[in-house]
Amino acid sequence: MEQSTTPILETTVRPTSILTLGLFALSSLFAVSPAMAETIPIDRISHIHDLAVDPNNPSQLYIATHEGLFLTAADGTATRIGDSTDDLMALATDMADASVFYASGHPPVGGNLGVLASRDHGVTWENVALGTGGPVDFHAMAVSRADPETVYGMFEGLQVSQDGGKSWRKVGPLPEKTFALAGSARDRDTVYAAAMGGLFFSRDGGAHWNAAFMDQHPATLVAVSRDGRIYTFLYGVGLVVRDESAEKWEVRSTDFGDRYPVKMAIDPTDPDRIHVVADTGAIVTSKDGGRHWVSYMGHDRETPELIAGARKTFEEYCQSCHGENGVGERPEDGNAQDEYGFVAPALDNSAHGWHHSDGNLAYTILNGSPRNPRMLPFKDMISEEDAKNTVAYVKSLWSFSSLACQGALHMKCMH
Ligand code: HEC
After folding, report:
1. Which fold is adopted by the domain 304-413?
2. Candidate of 327, 369, 391 to mutate for ligand 1, largest count of ligand atoms within 8 Å of Cβ
């Protein structure tokens, strides 16, 4: 990678925290037991281990969790698929029609699940193989984009199946501390591994590995689209993209603060639409190939038309106190401060707006603040839809790290 494209983020992130936290060490502080509730807010789910886009409705995501498989909706809820509560560590599917889901992991009672396959999008699972030295507990899986019968799994090194998961062969060791695997869209023997020492590729089905970059930034994820676009996240650099046939990598975005994505799913209908799971467990979405990010929750409201409309609402009703672009009121502003000296808070990145869920923010807008009468109830002036769209507008001012820390997840972001 060219040095000139490598940003100076290294001064603001702390590469050691990745070591001390561990990539998947998520606190389950706020987890409820999904077994008790069929549909729950996504930010209450602990441990999203993997995700895949629903090809029939690309605004929905299948998420493999500590307590089974869920289908998410853009309103921020997730609904359990089937009745398994197994800890699914990996989920992989042929992106084209997702006719087969592969998964692995371990049941709540202990032991390993081996290789599971589902032909009904996760409602029922069949145990198709034990895997080599199994039953295996694959912590990463990938289906080749070039040949959907070729499936890779990580368990004591790399294993491969070339008959759709029925039989498995041990290939050999993976790069040290591999976090994720992805198959090439061009050739079934080309496979990528995101690892602590960077991104690696193999052209011989995983027998030999080469480093993709000279400088060793941990690569936390790798994903390949149907048309051969490789996305990887390099800790300390940012989201990096290349077409499989191109020479050069492009740094797409660098503004991740202390946060980093750990899993990615690419929309099979549009490789610019990507969804990542952040280290906090939040799902964050980009519609333009990773240049800008919105939270998955409410991303259907983040259309140019709705945001432009909500911006007008904001300018008309809110800006007089909350400032242009939500920068907040300054004490020297005309009628700022009530008798107790409080000003209207910033609603952009700089404040604590992101401590609240979308629902709470919309509630405050409609019902006002019980603590400060200057924050009026707006429910007679704007509709509930307008309030929700205004929340989307405010969130369009937030960075990846604020989005990744919103609502119940913000406790994971306190230092
Ligand atoms: C007359 C001034 C004023 C106007 C107009 C106003 N606000 Fe507020 N707003 C405030 C004040 C003051 C607070 C702090 C309330 C508190 O401390 O409880 C506040 C708080 C909020 C909060 C909670 C922020 C947090 O971090 O807890 C949100 C969200 C909010 N306003 C959104 C809006 C929106 C959206 C509009 C326009 C529809 C709006 N406000 C219009 C003064 C105003």
Report:
1. Cytochrome Bc1 Complex; Chain D, domain 2 (1.10.760)
2. 369
Q: How far is the CA of 340 from the centre of ligand 1 (A)?
A: 16
Say which residue, 23 or 396, is predicted with more confidence.
396
**Which of 321, 358, 388 best tests ligand 1's pocket when mutated (most atoms within 8 Å of CB)?**
321
Query: Does the C-beta of 391 come closer than 6 Å to ligand 1?
Result: no
Q: Whose CA is nearest to atom 39 of ligand 1?
A: 318
Q: Which pLDDT does position 95 carry in this prediction?
A: 67
Nearest CA to ligand 1 atom 30: 365
- Which residue puts its alpha carbon closest to atom 24 of ligand 1? 353
Q: Using the predicted structure, report yes or no on whether residue 321 has a pLDDT greater than 50.
A: yes
Residue 28 has pLDDT above 50, yes or no: no
pLDDT tens digits for 330-386? 777 666 666 666 788 889 887 665 678 888 899 999 999 988 888 999 999 999 999
Please tell me the pTM assigned to this model: 0.87
Given a contact cutoff of 8 angstroms between Cβ atoms, the answer to whether 28 and 47 are in contact is yes
Is residue 75 pLDDT above 90, yes or no?
A: no
> Do 3-291 and 304-413 agree at the fold level?
no
Cα–ligand 1 centroid distance for 345 (angstroms): 7
CB of 344 shorter than 6 A to ligand 1: yes
Class of domain 3-291: mainly beta
Burial group, residue 104, by CB count within 10 angstroms (0-12, 13-18, 19+) = buried
